[in-house]
Amino acid sequence: MNEADYTQIRLLEAALDNPGLMKEGEVVTVLINTEDNSPLSVDLPASVVLEITATEPGVKGNTATNATKPATVETGATVNVPLFINEGDKIKVETAKGTYKERVKE
Prior knowledge:
One of its GO terms (molecular function) is translation elongation factor activity. The protein is mainly β. The chain has no helices and seven strands. Strand 6 and strand 7 (about 100-105) form a beta hairpin.
């Protein structure tokens, strides 16, 4: 939605690098071709904060290794996270690569 005049713009998922990391209401920058109102490019934020909804439980002492495990985030996407991350944790994900960046403490 254009925040200036509230017009709706439809985008195909193919126009986005990682559509699975987008939450509803996320603000993105869209470059539009004014001749036919088609999107030319979409710039996502550099990172997003997402909550882990499903993953194997972490085990005490799993902070020293670089091993990872798959985790499902609130948007349904899967991100590889360190072993110490648990369900309910919030993490910062780099949108360009779809990779774990850090755990977010509230």
